[in-house]
Design a protein that fits this description.
Elements: E1 11-17, E2 20-25, E3 27-29, E4 33-40, E5 50-58, E6 61-66, H1 71-79, E7 88-96, E8 101-116, E9 129-135, E10 139-140
Antiparallel strand pairs: 1-2, 1-7, 3-6, 4-5, 6-9, 7-8, 8-9, 8-10
Length: about 140
């Protein structure tokens, strides 16, 4: 039985921020949102409490990978913000090993929150990794 859609078991995440390709990351956490609900009690109504949606909150996104030549792209992007932190548009594409895009998310008003570089310690034999954390104001149509 042939599968029509790849379940994206093994993926990497290509990240592009305003046409700056930051390369592939092997971990992406935090893609999501939450509708904030406000509760209102109505006098004389003992059956339920009104649940009113107020706003949408978007969680920060953490992208991690082993240190590569693309690490210089991230630090170059961050160093360009000395005069201020302009909000950008970002695109995150989940790709299979053969380069097929499985899913794509576009984010508006992206700003960097934190970058953590590798811990270089000769006593521990670990892969040197970096993590980039970004905040955003929501999803936009990927075609925009």
């Amino acid at each position: 039985m042939a599968q029509e859609q790849d379940p994206a078991v093994s993926v990497c995440f290509m990240v592009e921020i305003d046409n700056i390709n930051l390369g592939a990351f092997n971990s992406c956490e935090g893609l999501g949102c939450e509708v904030v609900m406000e509760q209102r009690e109505e006098g004389g109504n003992n059956g339920y409490v009104w649940q009113l949606p107020t706003r949408i909150k978007y969680s920060n996104i953490k992208l991690s990978r082993p240190v590569t030549k693309d690490t210089e792209k991230v630090t170059g992007w961050l160093s360009g913000m000395i005069a201020g932190v302009p909000r950008k548009t970002a695109h995150i594409s989940a790709m299979t090993v053969d380069g097929t895009v499985v899913a794509r998310w576009s984010l508006m008003d992206v700003v960097p929150v934190r970058w953590t570089g590798p811990q270089l310690n000769p006593e521990t034999v670990k892969v040197a990794t970096e993590t980039l954390e970004i905040a955003h104001h929501g999803f936009i149509d990927a075609g925009r």
